[in-house]
Structure formats: C-alpha cells, structure tokens
Amino acid sequence: MTGRLPSVTGTGTLLRFALRCDRVRLPVWVAAGALLVTVQSVSSQALYDTPADLAAYAASVGSNAAAVALAGPPVGLDTVAGAVAFEISSFVVVVAALMAVSTIGRHTRADEEAGRTELVRATRVGRHAPLLTAVLTAAIACTATAVAIGAAATATGLPAGGSFLLGASVGAAGLVFAGVTALAAQVTGSPRATQGVAGAAVAAAVVLRAVGDVEGNGLVWASPIGWAQATHPYSGDRWWPLLLCLAATGALAALAGALLDRRDLGAGLVAPRPGPPAASRALTSPLGLALRLQRGALAAWTVGLTLLGLVYGSLAGSVETLFVDPQARALLPDAASLTDAFLATTLATTALLAAAYAVSAVLRARTEESEGRAEPVLAAAVGRPAWLGGHATVALAGPAVVLLASGAATGAVRAVATGDGGEFGRLLAAALTHLPAVWVVAAVALALFGLVPRAAVLAWAAVGYVAVTTLFAGPSGWPAWVDDASPFAWTPAVPIEAWRATPLVALSVVAAGLLAVGLAGFRRRDLVTG
Amino acid sequence: MTTAISVSGLVKGFGSVHALDGLDLEVATGEVHGFLGPNGAGKSTAIRVLLGLLRADSGRVRLLGGDPWADAVALHRRLAYVPGDVTLWPQVTGGEAIDLLGRLQGGLDPARRAELLERFDLDPRKRARTYSKGNRQKVALVAALASDVELYVLDEPTSGLDPLMEATFQDEVRRLRAEGRTVLLSSHVLAEVEALCDRVSIVRHGRAVQSGSLTELRHLTRTSMVVETARPVSGLAGLPGVHDLSVDGGRVRLDVDGDALDAVVRHLAGAGVRSLTSTPPTLEELFLRHYGEDLHEEQTPAAVRS
C-alpha cells in the first residue's frame, strides 16, 4: 500500500506508535462503554423480570417525552434486551463519539502544535500519513468498542446478534465523529478550536436526535446518533443504517485529506490575524489571565447549553399533547404535571453537562502547570492561592453563568408558550438549584489538583459517577449509598419536588471544604511540570 | 559585600532521583554570577527552589534576605526570571505576554519595553503559537529586562538566539552590572560566561564542584606552553606540576599546573629562552577536567572558596 501511495508512507510505523501511546487511554474508553452496557443489562434484567413489569415499564417510558428525548426511539420495549438498548444506547454513543473526537484531536493538531508532527514528517513519512494514522487509531478504538459492547451484552445473557449490532452501531457512530473531527482539524486555527467544533457537532447530533424522536419528524436522519439507533437492535436487527455511517466517515475523511493539501502544518484554513501589540487592562491579574484563557470555552458552553435550554423548553410544550397515555400519568406524583417531570429531568441533564464543564475548567489549571506556563506567572509576584484562585473562580462562576443562561432560555420559552411570566423565574431558579452540586464536583477536581496533580484527570471519573447515578437512579439495582454518594442525589428535583435550602447549603459547605483542601495542598507541594 | 543568594547543603530529590545533593552557592549583591554545568546537573532545579516553585528537602536557602518558599510573593517583586524553556500561551500575542508578566511582577517601564522590542527585533503582534523558539525566548527576555528589579535570574537565556541577539543580550547584562544589579546567569555556553561573569560556580551531579572568580579558577587549570631554548633543557620531567612533556631538540611542549608555573619558568630561563608561547586555560579545558576525565574525578577538589 505504502509503495504505491507515497503520501501515506510510514503509516504502519506511526500507527503502532500511536497505539502504544494510547495503550492506557483507549482501553479505558472502551471499558467505560462496555461497563455502561453491562450495568444496564444486569439491572434491567433484575427489574423487569416478569412480563407485567416489562409491560408497565414500556407503557411508562414509551409515553414519557423526557425518556424519549434522553434515550431514543421507543422501539423493541416488549423485550428486556430491547429495553436495555433503549436505555443505554444514546449514552454509549456519546462516549464513543467523545473518544473519537479526543483521539483524532490529539493525533492531529495537538501533535502539530507541540512540534511532534514536524519531527515525524521530516523523516520518510508521507504528508497524509499522520492524518491517516489518527483516523485508523480512532477506527481501531471504535471497532474495539463495538466488539467489547457486543461481548459484554452477550455475556450478560442478551441475544448475540442484537448485542453485536448494538455494539456495531455505537462504534459506527463514533467513526462518523472521527471523520467530523478530522475535517475540523483541517479548518480550525488551533487544537482547542478543533476539539470545540467537533464537540459542538456531537452536541448538535444529540439535540437533533432528541427533537426528531420527540416531535416524530425526520430530523433524526440528520444525526449520526439517529442512524445508529435506526438499527433497532434486538427488534428487527437492521444492519443497513451502518452503511450510512461508514459512507459518511469515508466522505469526511477523504475531504479532510484533500483539505490537508491546502493548509500549512500547524495552521488551519482560517488564517490567523495579527493580535494586539500590548495587553489590555483586563490582562493584569491571575484572574484576568484565567478568564482570557478560558473565555472561549465559557462562551462555547454558554451558547451550547442555552441552545439546549431552548430546545428543552420548546419540547416541554409537546409533552402534554404528544404523550397523553393515562397509565403514564398515573405513575407520576399527584401534583406534578408531565411537563414538570420532563423539565426536572432535562434540568438535571443540563446540570451534569455544567459539571463536566466545571471539571474541564479546573483541569485547565493542571494543563497550565504541566506545560510550564504556570512557572513564569508564579515566578512573578503571584502567590499560589491567587494563581489557583483565578482558575477556581472560572470553574465555580462559569457553571453559574452556563446554568443561568440555560435556565433563562428554558424559562423564556415556557413563559411565552404558556403566557405565564412567572414560569421564567420559576425555571431560572430551578436551573440554579443544581449549582451547589456542580460546585461539589468542581471542588473534587480542585482537591485532586492540589493533592495529587498527576492524577487530577481522575476528576472525570467523578463526572462519570454522578452522570451514571443521576441518569440511572430509577432502574438501578445497586445499594442506596451508591446513589447517596453523589451530590446530585441531594439536590431537590425541582420543579416536581419542593425547593429546600438545607441540602443546598450543606452541598455548598462540602464544596468549600474541598476547595480549601485543594488550595492547602497546592500551597504545600512542588510545581509539577511534564 | 552583601549577599543576594546564599545556599548551603541544598538537597532536592524527585522520588529516587537526587537532583540536588548538597548544593552550595553564594552570589554577592551587584555581581554577575555564572552558574555553569552540563545538562542535567541540577541548575534549573536549583533555580526553581530559589524561586519557591519547588520546596527544598533540606539545606539552607536565602534569597535577597528572605526565605524563597515562605516569602515567595514579596521576594518575586524584587526579581525577574527568564525560564530555560519558555512556553507561552498559544493564543496570546507576544506583546500581551510581556505586559502580563511585567504587570504580575510589579510593573514594567514602557520606554524600556519599547526599546527592548526594538533591540531584540521582536514583533509583539504575533500570537505565541507562531513564534519560533528564539522569539519565545525574546518575549521572556524583554519582560524580564524591562522590569526594574534588584535580581535577575536567567536560566540559559540565550538558547535559541542568533549571534547578533546574543551580542544584544550581552550588552543588556553589562548595562545591568553597570547599574549595580545582581544577575544569576545559568549557562553551558562558556564564552558567554567568560564574557559576562565576575564569578562562577560550577555544578555537577547536584553539587558545586568549584566556585570562585575566573582568575581563581584558572589557577586550577594548566597553562599550555611551547618554548624554544638556546640549549637543550633537562630535568623538566622531574619537576612537580609538569604534564604531557615532549622535547624535540630545542623545542619543548608542555602543560603546567597553575601553581607550578613559577618554578617551571625559572627552570626554563636557565636554558636561554628564545621564544615562548603560552596559552591561558579556557573554561572549556576547565570543564573537560571536571567532566571529561572520569579517572581523576576523586582527586577533584570539592570546592574552592574565594
């Protein structure tokens, strides 16, 4: 292959090296996907072990707009296996998509920015070899995810054919986002912008799929996640939608390869403009620097979650008219409307995303430290608390901004739709109710940063933990303390539950304590670079 | 003479690796002090301890009369630092980075900033992402040199600079010395240290192996001589401090220890010197003796104090 195509010479060697570099990272992603499916399969089989249980479940979620918006099309709910696929597929697809985005991002523009690609390309390596290596690495990871999910689901007793189709659909959707990221890497100006654009594409796919499934229009076909779920594992087992994924991946990767020839190494197609020759007054303090470094991410998350808030707000209007199954209404608390139940779920989901943003903001401090950029700042007249305080402020105030914007969007849409101006304030307050729980997750990341800097990235495990316990709190079969350990479990599920101050104050105190631990740890330890 | 930096018995380890193993360092106020050593000798680690970025395991460290770990912020107002490996924020322009670091340090002189940008030929509007290594180095240099402080800590500041810019840098350091500022200049570029430094400390394997003025250090090295005499010389081989002797009729080549020069010259004078070329030792040779001759390592004097 390499003999006839000189532009990809060296791909084999590079691929072996890339897999070696990712020998821990990729198996963790793959295992996370397989673990989600395993947990879901085991707990669903325990919960719906009689046909009556299963029928009740199918009736309730099939008519629950929140469940459909979060999970996908309510098909195949007449079997436990179909219920498992319904519950878990949309989450595992996002895991695979994020794995693909980060893998391509690291092996393309991040390597270029660090100067590693230059070193490699100066040897007998073709121009397209690094890009092809990145795509192949992501493809291997997606294939491994597909096989692992298929094997895990089969091992828990689900039909093998459907299990491997479920895995293949997840892997295939991941591949499409590998292609999207490869394309973004050619166009955008920096590695962060590459990951940002690709992440936005994942978010857009999630939203398009949710709107399409709730409204029942054709919008799901605009989303690769919709294609993956159109395979209907365990109920019909359609393999043809996978061809859509493969065709899209091939087209995106080919376009990326063509654009690669038109850009310079380390630069995107979008040419950078000269910047200001002097710093503005805003860039004077450690907080000013943290804001400057993180403003792009904050803006992106704010825009993204505002759009999500608008979508959730408008979907809430459809809940009452589209899903009027009396059986489903009977399952809900008396006073609560279906709409409020829907909004409680979507607000919690938004808060989970805000927690993910908060952790990424804290880890920005770690990146600054490990890449040596904290050193010149701390060698100036800046103390450790001031430096970390700058990033901590962004990580704590940023989620407040994001939740405020998202809650305001949902509230505004509901206020207009219902003609009740009070809805705006009510839903804004409901969104902000989740803030203390988000702070606890951010503070866990800060404590890890202060105490064990090299392991700070484990804060993502905290995000995964609260996400799994929050999203699967209902059907889970695990002990109560597993749920109770999550700060999200202590947050009142407004607006279906009443607002209570005590747990929110307690969560804020816990967050403050963890923050203090992180600051104290950082003051005592060495600066850890590399 | 007051002391700007005083380090004794400094130990710093990372896991099982001993980066600093009892380092001693004295820098007097107002001097340009060379901090010499091969890669991995522990120079950058020592500087990071001096800046309070790393915490000493043991030993005594005083910087401008304070404790660099406990009084870091107060001390940093009085010093400026150029890291050995300058990494900048990719999306921030060079001019912004200079202003930011200058402001965080306590303010910089706008006129000096403009002058230094001119002298170092640096475009402040480009984003750090597009800078070469040398240009990143210039950003850190401009930010440090435009600061009005007592102490300049420069960790291999000329790496990546072209010879013209190195000359500019040397001018700037001479200017600092003329103003009575203190400079700690870490380097493995010997010519730079010879050109700029009043005194030198040589560090290897985390310990100072020699310290003193360049004159004092030259006493520790050998002078190479080529001598033509009227009569054949005899008995040279028997003199102490004579090495690598070769006699070719009336032409003699030899290396002489610094403290044996007097005796050797007297001996040669007896044979009627017709011509004499002597080459003073360079720091290269000094380095070679410490790092090239492993066999003689044990006999190396631990430290020579001034």
Summarize this entry quickly.
The complex is a heterodimer of chains A (530) and B (306). Chain A has 530 residues and is mainly alpha-helical.
Describe the protein in words.
The complex is a heterodimer of chains A (530) and B (306). With 530 residues, chain A is an all-alpha fold. Chain A has two domains: 8-269, no CATH class; 284-530, no CATH class. Chain A is 73% helix and 0% strand. Chain A is globular and about 65 Å long. Chain A binds chain B through residues 113, 190, 266, 272, 274-279, 283-286, 288-289, 292-293, 296, 371-373, 375-384, 524-527, and chain B through 48, 51-55, 72-74, 76-77, 81, 83, 85-93, 95-101, 103-106, 124-127, 129-130, 140, 143, 153.
Q: Largest sheet of chain B, order of strands side by side?
A: 5-6-7-3-8-9
In total, the number of domains of chain A comes to: 2
Low-confidence stretches of chain B: 294-306
CATH H-level superfamily title of the largest domain in chain B: P-loop containing nucleotide triphosphate hydrolases
The DSSP helix count of chain A reads 21
Strand content range of chain B: 25-35%
Question: What summary fits the major beta sheet of chain B?
Answer: 6 strands, mixed
Global mean pLDDT of chain A = 90
Radius of gyration of chain B using CA atoms only: 23 Å
- Under CATH, the topology of the largest domain in chain B can be stated as Rossmann fold
Number of helices of chain B: 10
Biggest protein-protein contact in the assembly: A-B, 36 and 42 residues
In what range is the share of β-strand residues of chain A? under 5%
Kindly report how far apart the N and C termini of chain B lie. Answer: 13 Å
What is the 3D form of chain B? elongated
